[in-house]
Amino acid sequence: MNNRIDAIYARQSVDKKDSISIESQIEFCKYELKGGNCKEYTDKGYSGKNTDRPKFQELVRDIKRGLIAKVVVYKLDRISRSILDFANMMELFQQYNVEFVSSTEKFDTSTPMGRAMLNICIVFAQLERETIQKRVQDAWYSRCQRGFKMGGKTPYGFRTEPYVMDGVRTKKLVIEPTEAAFVRQMYEMYADPQVSLHDITKKLTADGMRTYHGRPLSRATLSVILRNPIYVMADLDIYEFYKSQGTDIYNDAADFAGTNGCYYYQGKGNTEDKHKHLQGQTLVLAPHEGFIPSELWLKCRKKLLASHTYQPARKARNTWMAGKIKCGKCGYALMSAHSNGILYMRCTVHADSKACPGCGCVKLHELEAV
């Protein structure tokens, strides 16, 4: 036990002017130790909302190995902002007889009063974190409602260009003619009651269409495109459709003039059938122009709502390996399939459109055994 050393832990989630740097935190802690042998553990770019941090986990391992006598931090919230994580951490420190010191708050964990003050402070640290999260979330929804593009992958059929809205620099979607022509073809084909998603992926892949990163069109991507109001020329029929489905519509009915597309935001806590249940979601008119007529868009959207044959968010069945094994030729996930009572793994793209030659015959039980 005499060979144990002191440890300094420092964390910084975001490098800002008003946040103390890791280097400064370490200097404060070294002053608290007044010399002596110590080991530094630093996590840069990690939040304090949980303990999933590489250097913090290394510190825990060293404590369990009996190498650490004292842990010093600049401030309590550098090591944790969660009441549950903090309680578990204090239990660990007590179990291995490790002293905990906050250099700016002067806590002494050897006394009941010191432990009580620590618990009070961690409550306020978690409150601060949750308040920051709420502010960020409110700001995000505020920008959504004003029609700002909120990042993410550019939808197929569009490109982005710089745009200023309400004095704020953002990006605006602009129609990409070649891709937009393929999107129109998707809608026109799917409007036919006899045409399936598989028929469209097979036809367009054969015509040379490729989506993101040069990949062939899949049913999952096609389904997303066909139900996305970002493409529609939103008029009163679109407004009435979403209103009847219980969707929250930010704009007035008079704003739906049959020109602009829409942004559609899915709220939290939705079921895996959220593409069918539109209640509680949010629809906002976007600044870009749509290019699919509302009548055609609605025909396809209602067909998707009535379809029970395709479920893009279904849970993995038959095997725990679903989604974890990729095809060596196209990079897409393998899926399980039955044949004569035997389970096989096959390439998703090969099953959708034959655009990939597939990975051959892979028996599921043999692969799981490996």
CATH class of the largest domain: Alpha Beta
**What is the approximate shape?**
extended
Order of helices and strands: EHEHEHEHEEHHHHEEEHEEHEH
Instruction: List unreliable stretches of 5+ residues.
Output: 269-275, 310-315
Domains (count): 3
Structural class: alpha/beta
Number of helices: 11
- The first-to-last residue Cα distance is 45 Å
- Order of adjacent strands in the largest pleated sheet: 2-1-3-4
Helical content class: 25-40%
Mean pLDDT: 80
What report would you give on this structure?
With 370 residues, the chain is α/β, with parallel strands linked by helices. The chain has 3 domains: 130 residues, Rossmann fold (3-Layer(aba) Sandwich), CATH 3.40.50.1390; 149 residues, Hect, E3 ligase catalytic domain fold (Alpha-Beta Complex), CATH 3.90.1750; 56 residues, no CATH class. Helices cover 37% and strands 19% of the residues. The strands form 4 sheets. A 4-stranded parallel β-sheet has the order 2-1-3-4, with helices on both faces. A 3-stranded mixed β-sheet has the order 7-9-8, with helices on one face. Strand 10 and strand 11 form a beta hairpin. The two termini are 45 Å apart.
Short summary:
The chain is α/β, with parallel strands linked by helices and 370 residues long. It contains 11 helices and 12 strands.
